[in-house]
Design goal:
The chain has about 750 residues and is α+β, with helices and mostly antiparallel strands. The protein has 12 helices and 27 strands. The strands form 8 sheets. Strands 7, 8, 9, 10, 11 and 12 form a 6-stranded antiparallel β-sheet that branches. A 4-stranded mixed β-sheet has the order 1-5-6-2, with no helix packed on it. Helix 4 packs across helix 10, helix 5 crosses helix 10 and helix 7 packs across helix 8. Pfam families: MACPF. One of its GO terms (biological process) is defense response to bacterium. Keywords: Membrane, Transmembrane, Transmembrane helix.
């Protein structure tokens, strides 16, 4: 249902340009001289037809928790100058359109009697069919607004909308990736191939942060008028109005305000409309596409102003890692592509898991948790109390310690025992167990510039000193292994024997108890993991009012012994200081279920070494303390750079090609290797370290320096020659005095005779 054209203004014959995007090669017949735009630019096509560019396009990333568009995933190119079948809009090469011609707008009316039954107006399809559909869209602005109105005002929501479909725009399966997005994938692939897995994991989280969880593959282009009204819930409870009556009354009220001229085919009771308007607590009108809503707004004016004012009124898509395959990355080996897609999938799943808030979702329950988006059965659970036996953490150094001894800050003993152990009656539980034979690591790296003054003899006869400052970039790196433990009650413990739990905080997230990265009054922080802290206190008199009912920890590699369904560990709830029941059988158990006990809700502490750590507190303990905002990746600090890591990363392709990153523009370039059999053009490829031709000024300076040096050498040779001549003359005189003594000086008075 699309057509391609690039009509030459002289001949009128069509000529389809098939060159890549932004390429300036000419097409036949010759282009007019005044068309200065390259093939692939949408402005290039405007010389052949008067059309508008369709702005509602698929191929973008999508955050399915926030319901917002993210970075561009697929490349757009207009080299074929395609348009819609009606010739109104210009399309990119990787898209096609299914026209939806309607003679009238679609009308619908809905009633949402529960806040968690609310659906998005413009992203219903992608929210419904996506993974983790229960939490999809739960952090979107319209979802949060509706939840606050329904829960806070004890209301139900009615929604009436007019939807005008114009086109369904889809992407071709063989669409190419956007260069920036592809460069990010190549970076992660290089880190995987170079065994920099922690850096690859960090980069994958950044990719999800900037491109979302999904890719939009189809959009419904059109416009919509929506009115949402919140009315008191007792209207439905006392059956003064049925759900059908609410829909009819809401529709009639909306159409009357819009001066809808097509007539309304339902018999509307004025009494029902009056009841509807009287019980209204809030109302708002939203426009998607077309002109903005204003006074004396009418449907006719809205219909007449839709041209070039289209927006996406619904979206469909696939998980982001679907586009990471051998078709979109043909130059990479299949194992690398598989690992690349897998790590992006893991990062997206972690984004969902971190923002899955389990708790009581029934607003009529006293244990209702406003932030919860998944019901965990805690609304009617029996309360269970446990004691907290403290935490401690071991640390093991490695041979890398130039950035400092990290164990000084990470290692600590249990305050209750003064040692790396648990009190009597408690069982030590290792929270982060070694995976693949390796313990969790903590790294730190930084660069330090060290400068010093260097001097050398210079000047005439080297009688002066020439000095300069030499600076060196020194790399520091430290790595340690950690083993965090917490103490779970395993048998009878005395009252006030444990510690108070005052919440947790990390280097990225605040403590929900204080709203800051700190502990409550009379509590102090203990390191727990690589970048987390646990607030503890033994001051039951002054600190108990700030404490939380503790229900254990669990992670991806360790369970929660307190969640074992055992009546011996339950005690009737009460405000008194909790203590466990006798004769527990948790001794030796270090792996319980990865969940919380009944009556407790789980909350994410951190993601440490690619492993999620959760803690359990009494249901609804944190509901009145904060409102949870979406927690976006990355969830760990940037890993330190190992001294073994190379600065330049390369990716090895299928046929042995080597891709390297151009540091000037962050693009990945296919390397070319010259051989002896190459032609003369290969000689132009020189490395940065190769000698370059000398400039004229440098040649003159070198000539002057050589002349001066030759003069100095000549003087030195002459002085040396003179010294040698004087030495020879002195030696000759001395020898003559020895061999020919003075006659007046007797050699031996006893053995001489006068010669006649």
């Amino acid at each position: 249902m699309t057509r391609s054209f690039c009509n030459d203004l002289h001949s009128g014959k069509p000529a389809i340009a098939t060159q890549p995007a932004m390429e300036t090669k000419s097409i036949w017949p010759p282009l007019p001289w005044w068309n200065k735009y390259p093939v692939g630019d949408p402005k290039f096509c405007f010389f052949f037809h008067d059309v508008n560019t369709l702005e509602v396009l698929p191929g973008f990333g999508w955050d399915n928790l926030l319901n917002i568009e993210m970075g561009q995933v697929l490349a757009t190119n207009y080299s074929r100058c395609k348009t819609t079948a009606d010739g109104k809009y210009l399309l990119p090469d990787n898209a096609f359109v299914i026209p939806v011609k309607r003679s009238k707008v679609d009308m619908s009316s809905e009633v949402f009697d529960r806040w968690n039954s609310y659906t998005s107006t413009t992203a219903h399809s992608i929210n419904l069919h996506a993974s983790y559909s229960v939490v999809s869209g739960s952090f979107a602005e319209d979802f949060k607004y509706n939840k606050e109105k329904q829960v806070g005002d004890k209301a139900v929501t009615t929604r009436v909308q007019l939807r005008h479909f114009m086109y369904v725009v889809k992407t071709h399966p063989e669409s190419s990736l956007h260069p920036v997005f592809k460069s990010r994938l190549m970076q992660i692939a290089a880190e995987l191939q170079n065994n920099r897995t922690k850096q690859a994991w960090y980069s994958a989280q950044l990719l999800v942060r900037e491109y979302g969880t999904h890719i939009i593959t189809s959009v419904d282009a059109g416009a919509a008028l929506v009115q949402e009204t919140h009315i008191k819930e007792n209207v439905l409870k006392d059956k003064s109005l049925s759900a059908h009556d609410l829909k009819v009354a809401a529709t009639a009220t909306f159409f009357r305000s819009l001066k809808f001229g097509a007539g309304f085919g339902h018999n509307v009771s004025n009494e029902n409309v009056h009841k509807f308007e009287k019980s209204r607590t809030a109302s708002r009108v939203l426009t998607y596409g077309g002109p903005p809503y204003r006074s004396k707004f009418s449907v006719q004016n809205w219909e007449n102003s839709l041209t070039n004012e289209l927006v996406a009124i619904d979206r469909s898509g696939d998980p982001l890692y679907y586009v990471i395959n051998s078709a979109t990355l043909p130059s990479l080996p299949e194992p690398t592509v598989f690992r690349l897609a897998k790590i992006v999938q893991r990062a997206a799943r972690l984004y969902y898991k971190v923002n899955t808030v389990a708790g009581c979702t029934d607003e009529t329950s006293p244990r209702f948790n406003f932030d919860a988006n998944v019901n965990d059965g805690s609304c009617h659970a029996t309360q269970t109390n446990f004691t907290f036996g403290g935490v401690y953490q071991k640390c093991y150094a490695s041979r890398f310690n130039s950035a400092g001894n990290l164990c000084d800050e990470l290692q600590h003993k249990n305050p209750l025992t003064g040692d790396f152990s648990c009190p009597e009656g408690y069982e030590a539980v290792e929270l982060l167990k070694p995976q693949s034979g390796e313990r969790p690591v903590v790294t730190k790296s930084y660069h330090h510039t060290h400068c010093r003054k260097l001097c050398r003899p210079c000047g005439f006869f080297l009688l002066q000193d020439c000095c300069h400052t030499s600076c060196q970039n020194i790399f520091h790196y430290s790595m340690v292994y950690i083993a965090p433990y917490w103490c779970a009650a395993a048998m009878t413990v005395g009252e006030n024997s444990g510690m108070l739990f005052g919440g947790v905080y990390t280097s990225h997230d605040p403590n929900p108890v204080t709203g800051a990265q700190s502990c409550p009054h009379r509590f102090y922080a203990l390191p727990f993991g690589s970048h987390s802290h646990v607030c503890v206190s033994d001051d039951y008199e002054l600190g108990y009012q700030f404490s939380l009912r503790f229900g254990g920890f669990f992670s991806c590699s360790s369970g929660n012994p307190l969640a074992v369904p055992n009546k011996n560990h339950q005690q009737k709830s009460g405000k008194t200081t909790p203590k466990t029941s006798p004769k527990g059988n948790l001794a030796g158990i270090v792996n319980g279920p990865q969940s919380c006990p009944r009556g407790y809700t789980q909350h994410l502490l951190s993601v440490d070494n690619e492993c999620e750590i959760n803690y359990c507190v009494k249901a609804n303990s944190l509901a009145k303390l904060s409102r949870t905002a979406v927690r976006r990746p990355p969830y760990n600090a940037r890993p330190g750079v190992s001294p073994k890591a190379t600065k330049t990363l390369m990716v090895v392709g299928i046929n042995g090609e080597v891709w390297y990153r151009n540091n000037s523009n962050a693009d990945w370039t296919l390397a070319s290797f010259a051989t002896q059999d190459d032609d003369d053009s290969s000689e132009e490829m020189v490395s940065e370290d190769q000698t370059k031709p000398m400039s004229q000024g440098a040649a003159i300076a070198l000539s002057v320096c050589a002349t001066v040096l030759a003069g100095i050498l000549a003087v030195a040779v002459y002085v040396s020659y003179k010294r040698r001549e004087k030495t020879k003359e002195y030696r000759a005189v001395s020898l003559k005095e020895v061999l020919l003594p003075d006659e007046k000086t007797p050699l031996n008075n006893n053995n001489t005779s006068e010669i006649s």
